[in-house]
Every structure is written in C-alpha cells, then in structure tokens.
Amino acid sequence: MNIVLRLAWRNLWRHPRRTWLTAGAMVFSNVLLVFMISLQFGMYGLMIDNSLRTLSGHLQVQAPGYQDERKIRQSIPDAAALAARMRGALDLQSVAARATAFALASSEERSFGIQVLGVEPRFEPLVSSIPGLVREGRYLGNRDAAEIALGGVLARNLKVETGDELTILGSARDGSVAAAVVEVVGIFDSGSKDLDRSLAEIPLGFFQDTFYMQGGAHQIVLLLPELSEVDEYRQRVQALLPDAGRLVVLDWDELQPGLKQAIQADISSAFFMYAVLVILVAFSVLNTQLMSVLERTREFGIVMSLGLTPGRLARLVLLETSLLGAIGLLLGALAGGLLTSWFQVHGFSYPGMQEMAENFNLPARFYPQVTLPSLLIGPACVFFFSVLAALYPALRLHWLRPVDAMRAA
Description:
The protein is of the alpha+beta class. A six-stranded mixed β-barrel has the order 2-3-8-5-7-6. The chain is 55% helix and 16% strand.
C-alpha cells in the first residue's frame, strides 16, 4: 500500500469516535438521500403512468386548436378509419378514436352536466384504465348500442343503478339539438373523485349518430409501451396523417401540462431540502478536518522544516477526507439500497398521502424503485461537497510558517 495512503488512513483513526461520528452523519444523510430520491422518482413514474393510462395516453391526434378551445366542430374526419390505419402501420393495437361533448344527463329524479366520451368499445380498454375499473355491471359492448357507463360519484348524484335509463341532452356538431335515451350498463370507480363526478362514456357509433358527427371524432389516442418512445412514435404518426397541417400530434407534456409543472415544482422543493442536508454534512466534515489540522499544527511544522512541502500536506488532508467520504458513500449506499429494497416490496405510506394521491389518480402506497442513479446521485454529492469542504483546512497549510507551527502547544 502506498505510504501516503497508509499515513492518511492512520491519521483518520487517531480519534475513532470523532471519525465514526462524522462518518455516521454521512451514512445517515446518504441513506436518507437514497431512499427519498428512489421514492421521489418512483412516484413520478407511477404518477405519469397512471395519469396517461386513465384518459390522455402518450400521444393524441387532434384538429388544430381543439386542445385549447374544445369545440365540437373541431373534429377529425373519418377518425375510426384513420385509427385503424395507424394500428396497422405502427404495429400497435393501443390506438383508439374518441369523441367528446358536454351534455345534460337527466334521471327520474335529478339532472347534472356531464362530459360524454364516445369511445370504441373494442379498443378503449387498450388505451385507458377506466374500462377495467367497472365495479357494477359491465363495460360498453356494441359500437352502436344506446348504452352508457358512468362514474360512481355521478351515478350516486343521479341516483341511478345499472339497468336504469338516462336522458342525454346536448348540442350537436351542426348546431341542432342532440338528444338520446341510454341504458346504464356499467358504473366505474377511477380513483379520482373529480373524474367520477363528471365523466360518462358511450359507444362511438352511437355518439356520432346522436351528435351528428358524420363519422368524425375529436381525438385519436395512442398508448405506447414506454414513455421513452414518445418522440419516435410522434414522428411516425405525423408521417401517417393526411393533409399536413389539418391535424396535429400532441405528446403527453402538451396534453397534461399541469402534470409536468407539478413534478417540476416538487423536484425544486425536494432538491432544496437535499441541498440543505448535503451542506450540513459538508460543514460537519469541515469542522472535523479543521480540528484535525489544528491539532497537528506542531507536527506539520516539524515535517515542513524537514523539507515536506505544504502542497503534499494539503494532498494528505484531502486524501484523509476522501477516505472518510468513501466510507460514508459505501456504507450509506449499501444501507440505503437495503432499506429502499424493503420498501420496494412492502410499499411506503404516511398519513395524508391518500388525499394527495387521489389528485393524481395514484394508489395510497408508493413503491420506491432502486436504480443505479438513485443509489449514487445522493452519496456522490455528499462525497463531492465533503472533499470540497476540506479545501479550507488544506489551504491553511500554505499559510503555515514552520517556526511558528513548532512553537504551537
């Protein structure tokens, strides 16, 4: 072993209690960073996946301006045929046409304003999680049937059950009155009260007849295998669109800007707390190394008088700090990985999480994901700033005069 490394290791353990206290602070902070970063990014992945699978999908084809204005006239001509063509050309079955309108739904006792989605019953389960969340009855079947599936809160407000009838009254694409009587065949619970309070789905063919869409729809939704494939599929979908400029392709960021903004805000606040934690550990290391240098002032003066340069002594102090940081990094990453792995299996929850999770259609328990970046990002930052904090004690040696140092008590 190199003599300088051996000397640095020996100096590190001159005061074992102080070394272990400092290393313990580093290990604790590293465990906390590994767990919180793993939980945070695991939560983001789950948040994005659940939000996109509920309704929006990863990509949507729309008429220009529909995303902002939501006018029923801003439609895609012959949307079901275009969706079928995309499924074949992209070799992707999770593509579905969808139409949207706002209407008044009336039962025998009550009336409420609702958002009506016209969906393809065969393909909607491939792009949305709602068909799999039906708790009473069944999901939509025939493409042209006069039937409806609605949210649980809406069903309770309307006081209807499966088998009951609803009257739908709205405005058709040509400005005429759209009216229909539908049978409630299913009631779903999406996990979002706002969604369950206002959303209802009917077959696309029946929607087109009722709202005089003439084969049109408002969205073609694509759910992709991986989030990382969005850019690739967006280019491929764009190439398949007829009449360039009459239709646009929007990705999930444009479809749900609030989701990305919420993630960015959470990242900013979280990284501020992480920075405070890292700085506290860095000051702990600074205090430890400064005490170590001051205690050895006389010793440093002697070796400097024998010809050892301040630069070599400074490198020795930095090497001691690096060894201390390496202990904290290895033990912290190991303990943090083990702790996070346990929660990855059993899940993590705390009081109040359920209310927050409902806003993003998330489960009440989160499962952090152990990855190489989540294991190393936090401990690496602690290591870097710990070594950086040791620069001041190391630089003090350049100002040390051997004669004055040897006179130190």
